[in-house]
Amino acid sequence: xxxxxxxxxxxxxxxxxxxxxxxxxxxxxxxxxxxxxxxxxxxxxxxxxxxxxxxxxxxxxxxxxxxxxxxxxxxxxxxxxxxxxxxxxxxxxxxxxxxxxxxxxxxxxxxxxxxxxxxxxxxxxxxxxxxxxxxxxxxxxxxxxxxxxxxxxxxxxxxxxxxxxxxxxxxxxxxxxxxxxxxxxxxxxxxxxxxxxxxxxxxxxxxxxxxxxxxxxxxxxxxxxxxxxxxxxxxxxxxxxxxxxxxxxxxxxxxxxxxxxxxxxxxxxxxxxxxxxxxxxxxxxxxxxxxxxxxxxxxxxxxxxxxxxxxxxxxxxxxxxxxxxxxxxxxxxxxxxxxxxxxxxxxxxxxxxxx
Length: 355
Ligand code: NAD
What we know:
Elements: E1 12-15, H1 23-30, E2 35-39, H2 41-46, H3 48-53, E3 58-62, H4 71-84, E4 88-93, H5 95-108, E5 112-116, E6 127-132, E7 135-140, E8 148-151, H6 161-179, H7 186-208, H8 213-232, H9 237-249, H10 253-267, H11 273-283, H12 288-298, H13 315-322, H14 335-347
Parallel strand pairs: 1-8, 2-3, 2-4, 4-5, 5-8
Antiparallel strand pairs: 6-7
Helix pairs in contact: 4-5, 6-7, 6-8, 6-10, 7-8, 7-11, 9-10, 9-13, 10-12, 10-14, 11-12, 13-14
């Protein structure tokens, strides 16, 4: 076994169907008295009575989160927090809402709590991202890590089958890269493998029966595990590819992750055998990249970057950007190999064992 460092997350997690009812008590526990709620419009309408149930503790609601946190939106929300004299922030929604909450916490130092309603996993990390001048800047800062997270699977029932499936695959990508991360460790590997197993079992049922409480609960459990794995490790090639493609071509975040994942996993197949064994075991299949591709197929997700708007003319520049600076990845990063990965993802070919 390799020597390792493991820092446990300091986030308090409350998990289970109906735990949203405990929001007032958890806000009291945190000492949040003047809360700015940051939430997607879907969450605001779904949780109107819960937010109102916080009574005079809510000083304002910002309901216009935008994917990838444009700086203008972050500044508007920060200004609102200041004007209202907020002493805390509560983010409700997917990664876009939680990302905006983090942007507020980053500069104001206001403590953050989160109620995730997708499987993106941001709530369990100290990673933030803000887009400025067309470039997304990311970093880690303990101030943006939510103090408390309430995971209520019933809030995810309204997430469409298509969004649930792609969001789940996005989350599986966190687990896959945590399994071969340079700063991984045995505890994170247990978490990540279990996260993949939970999603592989839950997502097909979520897609066919979106209001199946058990399936929703298992999927959200997977999201918690995946977010924890993401928060404890440094991501590699797969996330770099998605960061570049998302930034340059504005592709839909979760779908792009789902499409790229089998190909990025194949890229690292020979260089990360233990991770591949764990992924295949969790998916109950013989080959990790093939198992991921087949799961996406079974979830009826698009399989090619071409089908979600990636221009073929952009592949070469993207491969150059992805390989322009070194970063840790199990397999060596070369332009030609990364270009081949992008081409395979562009056309959506199955990651065969012999190719
Ligand atoms: P999102 O937050 O944009 O949500 C996707 C869509 O789903 C939105 O239209 C939203 O209104 C809707 N929605 C959310 N919950 C719903 C529900 N329960 N019912 C119905 N509709 C619902 O997207 P996302 O995929 O959750 O998050 C993606 C963003 O998160 C990206 O910007 C990504 O970079 C970021 N992210 C950050 C981290 C991190 O650690 N910082 C980790 C993962 C993702």
